[in-house]
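Entry 14. Two folds queued back to back today. First construct below, sequence then structure tokens.
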Amino acid sequence: MHTYIFNTDLGTFEITNSRHHRMYELWLEYEKLGEYATARDAADDVASFNTGHIEWDNLESEAVRVPAGIEAWTEVGDSAVQSAVDLRQRAELNNPYLVGEEG
């Protein structure tokens, strides 16, 4: 499993393999922004301010330092990824404001 992160003032972007390892998912904190055929495609959308996240995409005209390619992102190991997934799942389970699909 390959996971890459890039920290910004808005939060941490994360590019990770989907559960079935067929696609890469782009996340900004707890918001999934899209799925991509390659991690490079996801990183390119972040670098070109074309993520679908309005706050990030509107920073295009400002002097924001963005990694030019996936090689400049930080690659994290499986144990760090699992810890992040566990934290995300715990946050979702303990959030009284999230409503399940049934209601």
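Second construct, same run, same settings:
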Amino acid sequence: MKRQFCGPYDALDFLENEWPRQGMPHARAVQVCREALHHSEYANSARNCFIAACVEASLAYSEAENLGSRAEAKMVSRHR
């Protein structure tokens, strides 16, 4: 199933409510996404941590094109 995330709020909701497997990358992504909700300078770090957590959880990702200043990722779950 493909998912699209339009920023740290969407990513945090997924991390906290639907994440398949927790580890250190997941914990870091949650922390940095929370920080990004209050401080926009953390948005790029939140995106990078979210991608690292996706890799750790065996979730495929691709970056959307033509984003401008928005951070998005389309997710495809590989696990069942």
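Quick look at the second one. The longest helix spans residues 24-38. Residues 21 and 57 are 6 Å apart (CA to CA).
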